[in-house]
Structure formats: structure tokens, C-alpha cells
Design brief:
This protein folds into two domains: 272 residues, D-Maltodextrin-Binding Protein, domain 2, CATH 3.40.190.10; 227 residues, Dipeptide-binding Protein, domain 3 (Roll), CATH 3.10.105.10. α11 packs antiparallel against α13 and α16 runs antiparallel to α17. A seven-stranded mixed β-sheet has the order 8-9-10-1-11-21-12, with helices on one face. The chain has a four-stranded antiparallel β-sheet with strand order 4-5-7-6, covered by helices on one side. A three-stranded antiparallel β-sheet has the order 19-13-20. It is α+β, with helices and mostly antiparallel strands. The chain is built from 17 helices and 25 strands. The chain is globular and about 75 Å long. Helix content is 31%, strand content 22%. This is ABC transporter substrate-binding protein.
């Protein structure tokens, strides 16, 4: 009878919690992973922060549709070269500056600034080659002109990195905006305690939430403390102890427990998956047979399953994330584990001899592959374990795989990232969909190298497919072109599948309505509230 009573009480408590109304007040203690060098910038960890204090022109909902935000409506000219946005009236930045069309024009000018410390590199790579001008044709009317159609434009503008900032604040200079940027969003940056946290307070005048927000008006929570807890065990422990109400990136070892004890949501990030980028510029991966051999040499699926314990699934299509509408599903199982086939490919490529340790040789040179990665930066400890499994399996086929973990500081300083310092770099690029292909695979222009084309794969057929897709209004045709680009990349083994890149959030049950944006996977706290 006692057990039955307990069950009834639990059901009743659950029903009461479900019926609870959003309440105002409280401080959200959020345990995050990495800290950027500024509170705004071109790195995803900075985008996550920017989403809390800045608004965008448009938002992207869970179904991939572009919905209103600061722009209440927009029209596109018949030649697809002119976008006209009508802006929401009555919006102000938190320093009192009016948010009007000229303020947006001022932001766009800085996106393309000649000074690399000021400009937005994402804008440069996404659409500077298409951009002609931005001008205010009326106080709340923005006109953006292109020199050719660029169909991903609205999707790109939904990325958190394109949050609109106060032009008055921007005029203070790079250092001030690095420390305390000012937007029109639901939270205001109070103080950045470097190495510890960023403290936000609620914007009481907030009136510009996107159409896909769960409520309009100011945030429910009074404050948000964004703590930097890089160690995953420490971060999860802070949730267990109650020092954090919500944390980012549940570690694999705690994944099963967290799903039982807390409210866990997982979002499969758009853009590219976490994949192995093979350096095609130099031997041995300048030979497609060797690249394909490596892809078949290890049971990558099993390595991911063992290491991530379900927290992050395997992904065989290394070209585009499976959450993207243009994802080619037929590539999900590319290059299955087949050591016999890997051996034959290496034989064909001339790697027939072996040394005393079983490593293949060609012209007296070992078949050595160096995997360089940012340890705890772009590869977690779970990912590093998966690489160790791949290292051992590839050795059976005759690859000498050398792992080169690199600290975040050294990685950002360029260590182990020079053109001849690695054969493989595991990495990802976060976006929403196939617009990411333009960033990653843009060919060199004859003067500068594309720093994001780590594989150095520059087949002109690929760029033709991408640029044609970006300019194609017909959705079915555009999807076909993007999928053809993915097939070319996977068939060429310029990138090899590794893992889906998930964003996970675990929160106490008393904290409701934290959600993850489908733009670039950033956590959103504007709608979050505590059950009283």
C-alpha cells in the first residue's frame, strides 16, 4: 500500500509540475565548457554567448523555416538580388541607442571591415563575394543588394554570429566590445570574470523575441551566470551537487544516468559532422587509394559506439550533418570496416613491403599518419578514446598512426597545424545546412589559401556544384546539387566519417524551457523559468 501511495504521489507531483505556470525570478547557474578570448567573435563558443545578449534579423525554427525576429517581414526581388527587410518598431539596444535600419547598416559595414580585428570573418566567407550594398531606404526599411543570387542568405543571417550590436557601443573600439558587448537581447552583460564566468542580468525592456521563442517579453530569470567548467566530470558533478541548474555537453560516461535523473535534450548540430580531414596535398594521402584504404582500415562505427556510449552517434557521411535538409542519406554507411579491401588498396598503391613492426613501407618510407587535434578543444576525451581505437585497428593493416594531442593554447597558436605537420585533422564546422560547403571548400584564390579547407581538396567540379547550388532558387534542384557535392567529397575520401556533432543540455527538473536553437545549436535561456 505504501508503494502504491508513493506511486500515486509521484504521478500527482508530476502532473502538478506539468501544470505549473512560468514564474519570474531566480538565477540560472549554467555550467559551460570552453571560454573564448572575447564575448563576441567568429568561434562557436562566442556565438553561444552572443545569442544571449543580441538579436538577429531572422531566426530559424526547429523545422528549418526562416521566421521573423528583428525583421518582421521581407521581400526578395524577382532576380533574387535584392532583399528588403521591414524592421520591428520600438526596439532599442540596452545602451539606449535606437535599433533602426541605419543601425543594421552600420553593423554590416563592420562585418566587412578591412581591419581583421573588427570584421566578421563568417560574413566575409559566406557572402562578401555576393554583397554589393546595404542601405536604409526608410527608418525601419533595410535594403540589401547582391551582385548574384545567394539562396542561403536568410539562413546565414540566422546564425548567432550575425547578432545586431549597438553602433554606439561598436564605436568604442575592439577592446571594449570584447569585454562588454551591447545588443538588444534578453540579457545584458554585467561582468566577465575571466577564467570563471560571465554574469548576465535580465533586460527588463526586452520586446523583440523571435517568432519561435516560447514567450514574448523579458526573460523570466533575473540573472544568468555562465560558468566555465572545462572538465566534463567537474561540470557534471556541479549538476549533481546543485551548484549548476543546467550544464552543457553531458559526458559519455554519465549519459545513461543523466537521462534518468535530469531533463536532457540533444540537438544534432548542422554544418559538418565531426569528421577526419585527410591532407590530400602531400603523401601519402595525395593518393586516393591510400585515403580509401585508411577509411576501410578501422571500424570507426565501433570506435564511436564504444567511446561515446550513445551520447554521440557514428556518422559515415563526412560532408554534411544529418540534421541538414540537404543531407545525402545514402552516404551514411560509406567506407564500412573492411581490412582486406584496405590491404588490397595499399598493395595497388605500392605500399607492399613491411618493416619488423608490421608497418608498410614504400621506397624506404613508412606509412605514417599523424592525427593532430586540439585536446579538450575540438576533440573531447571521449573523442580521443575513439581515435586511440582507430589507431590500433589501422595498425593491423599497416598504418603507423601517431596521435598528436595539442593544448588549446598551442592549437590556437598554430602548433601541429602547418601544411606538413599532419596527415589528418579531426574537426567540424558548425552551421545549419549546406551553406557550410562554401566556407569549407572554397578554393584558393591564387593569393591566399583558404584556411578552412584543411583537406586541401580543390577539385573544380566541387566548386562548380556548390556555387551553382547557392545560386539556384528551385529547391529540388538545389538539393540535388548539394547532394552531388557530398557524393564527390565522400567518393574522393577527402573527408572520412567519424561522429555526429551533438549539443546536449542537462537540467534540473525544476528549471523549465531551456532549449537549443537550430541555427548553430546554441542554448537559449530567454524562455527558461524555475518551478516555484
Amino acid at each position: 500500500m505504501a508503494a502504491l501511495f508513493g506511486l500515486v504521489a509521484a504521478i500527482g507531483a508530476g502532473a502538478a509540475a506539468q501544470a505549473a505556470e512560468p514564474a519570474h525570478g531566480g538565477t540560472i547557474q549554467y555550467g559551460h565548457e570552453q571560454e573564448g578570448p572575447c564575448l563576441l567573435g567568429g568561434w562557436i563558443q562566442q556565438w553561444y554567448l552572443q545569442r544571449q545578449y543580441a538579436d538577429n534579423l531572422v531566426s530559424r525554427d526547429a523545422d528549418g523555416r526562416i521566421v521573423p525576429w528583428l525583421a518582421t517581414s521581407w521581400t526578395i526581388s524577382g532576380d533574387r538580388r535584392t532583399y528588403t527587410f521591414q524592421l520591428r518598431p520600438g526596439v532599442a539596444f540596452t545602451d539606449g541607442t535606437k535599433l533602426d535600419a541605419q543601425a543594421v547598416v552600420d553593423n554590416i559595414a563592420i562585418w566587412f571591415d578591412a581591419d581583421p580585428a573588427r570584421r566578421n570573418n563568417a560574413a566575409t566567407f559566406y557572402f562578401k563575394d555576393r554583397f554589393v550594398s546595404a542601405r536604409a531606404t526608410a527608418p525601419l526599411t533595410l535594403q540589401l543588394d547582391l551582385n548574384a543570387p545567394y539562396e542561403p542568405l536568410l539562413t546565414v543571417l540566422s546564425h548567432a554570429t550575425f547578432g545586431i550590436l549597438s553602433p554606439t557601443a561598436l564605436a568604442r573600439g575592439v577592446a571594449a566590445n570584447c569585454e562588454q558587448p551591447i545588443g538588444s537581447g534578453p540579457f545584458i552583460v554585467d561582468k566577465w570574470n575571466r577564467g570563471q564566468n560571465v554574469q548576465f542580468r535580465r533586460n527588463p525592456a526586452y520586446n523583440s523575441a523571435p517568432a519561435n521563442a516560447r514567450h514574448q517579453g523579458p526573460a523570466y530569470a533575473e540573472r544568468l551566470v555562465w560558468k566555465f567548467l572545462k572538465d566534463p566530470t567537474l561540470r557534471y558533478g556541479s549538476l549533481l551537487s546543485g551548484e549548476s541548474n543546467v550544464i552543457y555537453d553531458v559526458p559519455a560516461v554519465a549519459w545513461e544516468e543523466a537521462n534518468k535523473r535530469f531533463h536532457v535534450i540533444r540537438h544534432l548540430t548542422g554544418g559538418t559532422p565531426l569528421r577526419l580531414q585527410l591532407n590530400t596535398e602531400f603523401p601519402p594521402f595525395d593518393d586516393i587509394r591510400v585515403r580509401r584504404a585508411f577509411a576501410h582500415a578501422a571500424d570507426r562505427r565501433r570506435a564511436v559506439e564504444v567511446s561515446f556510449l550513445g551520447a554521440a552517434p557514428f556518422e559515415g557521411n563526412a560532408a554534411l550533418s544529418q540534421s541538414a535538409p540537404d543531407y545525402a542519406k545514402d552516404l551514411a554507411d560509406a567506407y564500412p570496416y573492411d581490412p582486406a579491401l584496405a590491404g588490397r588498396l595499399l598493395d595497388e598503391a605500392g605500399w607492399t613491403a613491411r618493416d619488423a613492426d608490421g608497418i608498410r613501407l614504400k621506397d624506404g618510407r613508412k606509412l605514417t599518419v599523424r592525427i593532430a587535434y586540439g585536446a579538450g578543444y575540438n576533440i573531447t576525451s571521449d573523442g580521443a578514446q575513439a581515435l586511440q581505437i582507430i589507431q590500433e585497428q589501422a595498425r593491423e593493416v599497416g598504418f603507423e598512426v601517431v596521435l598528436r594531442p595539442t593544448t588549446q593554447a598551442d592549437w590556437l597558436g598554430g602548433k601541429n597545424r602547418g601544411p606538413k605537420e599532419f596527415e589528418i585533422q579531426p574537426a567540424y564546422w558548425t552551421a545549419t545546412s549546406a551553406e557550410v560547403l562554401k566556407i569549407v571548400w572554397r578554393p584558393d584564390d591564387g593569393i591566399t589559401r583558404n584556411p578552412y579547407n584543411i583537406s586541401r581538396f580543390q577539385d573544380p567540379r566541387l566548386w562548380t556544384l556548390i556555387t551553382e547550388a547557392d545560386a539556384t532558387a528551385d529547391e529540388a534542384r538545389r538539393r540535388q546539387l548539394y547532394q552531388d557535392a557530398q557524393r564527390l567529397l565522400v567518393d574522393s575520401a577527402a573527408v572520412v566519417g567519424f561522429s555526429v556533432l551533438p549539443v546536449s543540455i542537462a537540467s534540473q527538473h525544476r528549471l523549465r524551457d531551456v532549449w537549443i536553437s537550430s541555427a548553430v545549436g546554441e542554448p537559449v535561456f530567454h524562455d527558461a523559468w524555475f518551478v516555484k
